[in-house]
């Protein structure tokens, strides 16, 4: 029995035949192969550079890690490298991360929701705001440091740190929260924009309000992308040193300042891991400062890795819910 093709089936059948013929012809895709090789070389170079960095730091920090790593973590800043520790830097870095998460993430995600779900995309105001946010994401961090010094140290010093003339963890946390805010807005907006419109239309079709659609459909679907962007922003905040220099992070000796979670010490003088690493790296290498600087780098990498791991676990959880 012969089979007669319908007009609707001619197009797909012809396309399938053309693809099968191209696959079986034996002709290689030269452009595609060259592009794949370039991408592979780029990937390998990135992995090699990262591996060299980690191995170099591990070799440099090996005497500190193997002999007194516990004391190094719990110790305080000293005048001698063999007695110095980073507990004050860990405390400052932790609270800067808390300020970044508490301030920049809710503000950034809320701004992204408004720009993508409520604002009229074609309006001049929305396009003006979007353009300026993207420009602010590329502003050097030292400019944000000057802003933080002017606003939080000079103008609001009586609130952020009466005893330390405004040079406190609060000023540093607020400055870095503002620094990463444009990045959070951009990444969250891109994740929300990638949500299929069919999902929104389905919600509106059953009578849901815009807020109900955003809350129950858009945000859960966009959560993995939002989390990925926010973690990248947090990693940048934890590793920045230039703004901390301008808002008055200390590189010298500090008092113990109470416990690790003592919020009353947030208005006192402070330091953070990037500041400690910068200070130690500038000292003569043959005196042992390079070894403690390398150990501090390893600890900072571990802190960032822990933050990334937490975000990946949350992202995987939301992806399972989405499926």
User: How much is the average pLDDT?
Assistant: 85
Question: Ranges with pLDDT <50 over ≥5 residues?
Answer: 1-8
- What proportion of the residues is helical, as a percent range? over 70%
Order of H and E elements: HHHHHHHHHHHH
If you had to describe this structure to a student in words, what would you say it looks like?
- This protein has about 325 residues and is an all-alpha fold.
- It contains twelve helices and no strands.
- The protein has helices at about 5-25, 30-75, 85-120, 125-135, 140-155, 155-160, 170-195, 195-205, 210-240, 240-245, 275-280, 290-320.
- Helix 3 (about 85-120) packs across helix 11 (about 275-280).
- The protein is globular, with a radius of gyration of 26 Å.
- Residues about 1-10 have low confidence and may be disordered.
Which features does this protein show?
mainly alpha; 323 residues; disordered N terminus; 74% helix
What's a quick, concise take on this entry?
With 323 residues, the chain is an all-alpha fold.
